[in-house]
Amino acid sequence: MGGRVTPRPAKIPDGIWHVSVESLVDFERVHWNERTQLEKAAHVISILIKISLLILTLIIFLLTLALLSTAFQLVGGRGIGSLIKNSPIIKNPICAACVGMLVTVVLQSSSTLSSVLVAMVAGHLLKVREAIPILMGSELGASFMNAFIGLGQSGDRAQFRRAYAAVALGDIYNFLCFFILLPLEIFFEGLRHSFASPIQRLSKLMVSPIRISHKSTQEIPSLTVLTDPLLDRIIQVDFDALDDALEDDLMEPDSVWQESFIERCINLTTLEEFTFCSHTHLFAYSTLDDTSIAVILLIASIISLILTTLIIVKLIQMLLEGKLAIVLKEWLDKKFPSPFRWATNYLIMLLSCFLVMIIQSSNVIQSALTPLVGMGVVPLERLFPLILGSGIGASFTGILTAFSADPGQLKE
């Protein structure tokens, strides 16, 4: 009798990773020409409703991120200047990277954190070399949302495998940047009296041609024109007073702040309502302090963030059923003619970058790509340039924040 033969592990069929166009076709679906006029009208109306719901959900998603940012500014608005300046955690690159990761996990927007860091550097709360590890950690924090999105397709083994392959592709890219560039930053940080860190030196070379003008810099418009009116209905904050409090706290840690940074129609000391008040947000007549209101907004924003993310995934799956999924897959499978075939991925990267620049949230794009890869509509080969493009586009948010800052601090 021979020895026991160890079975070889089963090879994963190629069809798991590459989904054919035929597999996306639902043969049980009634053909368009075979439908009645009433069925055609109902189908078109259902698609329009789904698209409208998707756009509405994306706006709510962006509004949620804005609410999170506002709530965190209210929570940390008092005394945060001296806390950041003298914090040993921020001065330690490893701890600073962990802070960036945790903040991004909570905010679920690395773009929001990058905008906050740009504003803090411009306000002399942070130095450039102290902000670099936080940005690196934020890229790792952004990976948690993709992992959460991938769980939404755990019902189908093949889709779940492809979805988590998409998650791993973005995570490996972020981890390589973290474990290669951060040690270089730490090494050159110890030699900062002789050498500047590679990223800091590169950033100085990039901004050296900029000529600073002392004229006021106008804020570049973005999609916040859609969310700001809704945000003003929920809460209105005196950000100028909040910024002044941060600067005063940085210069004089024992300075006294105003009673509330929220625009109110009531005196918190005497509880008397103002006769003429133009504020119409939800907390205009609230007697709660700023911290309590911020905690309420934080809880509501986190719940809204989870719900909107799940709804976005479900709506994308419903919209990309049938003909639309086939058209999108055929378009992504196309390549330029032979001499220019190499430019295909660069074009896809450029389109992804442009889309993130418009939406100003790379999480929205990556959250949409994960279920698309799981469904087999977006091939894994096309995912990498899409991820690179979204990363480049995400930096545009920080550039917008820099241009909206004081012109004298533009280079920083």
UniProtKB/TrEMBL annotation:
Annotated GO CC locations: apical plasma membrane
Organism placement in taxonomy: Eukaryota, Metazoa, Ecdysozoa, Nematoda, Chromadorea
UniProt keyword annotations, A-Z: Cell membrane, Membrane, Transmembrane, Transmembrane helix
Single GO MF annotation: sodium:phosphate symporter activity
UniProt protein name: Uncharacterized protein
GO biological process assignments: sodium-dependent phosphate transport
Organism expressing this protein natively: Panagrolaimus davidi
Membrane topology term: Multi-pass membrane protein
InterPro entries per UniProt: Na/Pi_transpt
